[in-house]
Amino acid sequence: MDVKKFVIKQISVFSENRPGRLAAIAHALGEENVNILAFSIAEANGFGVVRALVDQPEKAYKKLSSIGFNVAFTDVIAVHMQDRPGGLYEIAKMLGDANINIEYSYAYSGKEGAVLILRVDQVVDAIEKISKSGATLIESSVFH
Amino acid sequence: MFWDKKIETLKRDELKSLQLKRLKKTVRQTLNVDFYRQHLSNARIRVEDIRTLDDIEKIPFTKKQDLRDGYPFGFLAVPLNNVVRIHTTSGTTGKPTVVGYTRKDLDTWADLIARNMTMVGITEDDVFQNMVNYGMFTGGLGFHYGAEKIGMTVIPSATGNTKRQIEMIADFGVTTIHCTPSYAMHLSEVAEEMHASLDSLRTGIFGAEPWSETMRHSLEERLGVTAFDSYGLSELFGPGVAFECPERNGLHIWHDAYLIEIINPQTGEQLSDGERGELVVTPLMKEAMPLLRYRTGDITMKMEDGCICTRGQKIARITGRSDDMLVIRGINVFPSQIEHVLLKIPEVGNQFMVYVDRVNHLDEMIVDVEINRDNFSGELADLARIQKKVVKELRDALELRTTVKLVEPGSLPRFEGKAKRVIDRRGDTI
Predict the structure, then answer these.
(1) pLDDT in tens, A102-114
(2) Per-residue pLDDT tens for B140-174?
(3) Do A52 and A60 meet the contact criterion of CB atoms below 8 Å apart?
(4) Is B388 on the interface with A (CB under 8 A)?
(5) Beta bridge partners of residue A65, listed in sequence order
(6) Domain limits at B43?
(7) Which residues of B touch A47 (CB under 8 A)?
């Protein structure tokens, strides 16, 4: 199995916790015609990290860096979920049984169903375990 | 009341001749220090050239940086085996300034403290709780020895555990306290929450940081004390250099022990009475570490002669600093110390801003620092780790807890010329 095709590039943007920062990020991506597929904000003591899955990560990275943002790529994986009650439980149980430790996660529900995005510490290992568990991984080409 | 009435009320002529005698002795004593031998020879001054008190103007100033450069024992004028104690003060780049004391120095120092406390009516019948740091900071042991010399009942409670401090005040019938004014304010609030009585208190001695008249009124009302301002610095023994008398209009500085000048900090020129400038002190009774024309950095002025209490000329309460030193919870902080710490942490940039606030009457310092563009992993946990690291490194260097805020790279102001990295928002609030 080519595990690489399941590795998705998330962009992580450092942001101070003050009004207008998200707008600045979103505006810049809009200007570049970069589409945001999913995103979340993680918040700590006075600052946060904006995490986003976008259709053109390199372009997003370049643009945000050029206007002063601190941006990094983070490898994440995406798992397909049933978009109905109990859908998350099924996946979460599989991940638990497969002994996969999640650092953080966020989800969205789109045209092709619901998607759970996972940040794990051992990406390759997790991809192998998840495939064996019976869950459906989504290829990165679906996003970008 | 007087501890040593004769010396405290010496007539001007007698005082001047005593000062001159002691100045000559001090200059001779400094010749045991390499720095001063060089310093005086560069200025082409021999001991015999000091014939009047005015001749002191020929001697160049000694700066705090000189003392730092002498770390650790470069300014000792006696062999180390004659030094019975060492204290230190915070340095700007991690290295502290060392001050040494002979047995006689400790005795002189305790005597000056005893003068101060006696001046405001404290006697051997008083019970004294000394709520300042007892370690390398001179405030703890300095007041301790002076109070014991008077024969007071001394409680070396040091800092921390405010509830226990309050219980001790009540249980031991404490009449006199010494602490920073901001800690006193905090103490009064905790006492209020505990519904504890502080009825036994009569006198509060507050120092080590600047405080306003508004704060004085507030402290007196809340603690039921008469509040006195105390001034000193480690380089001149420690606390006890100058102190308010019951008039509480200016501080009496002990002229037999300290020869003072007020200068324009820019030009070094001497200023007249009533003109504000930097206090420059030549201690006249120090053995282990004599100093000549030491620039304190503190801004004050000489007041008019003739206090009702008949002691010598007073100086005004300190109104600021001629350099960028900050006093946070009684601890001296130089912005350059912060810079020095940040330089050692690759995960953050070297630009910073410091904000000082007073929250619940305690000083709080916030340091804004940029994360380093090349060190961003994208992980929140890594950022939190960097934040913790900066807090820890600052605490180790400053001995002070700070709040560190990570900000975006390039977002802090860049300065051309003199940087203004400190915003002190404590103002005159209480």
Answers:
(1) 999 999 887 778 9
(2) 999 999 999 999 999 999 998 999 999 999 999 99
(3) yes
(4) no
(5) none
(6) 5-323
(7) 383, 405-407
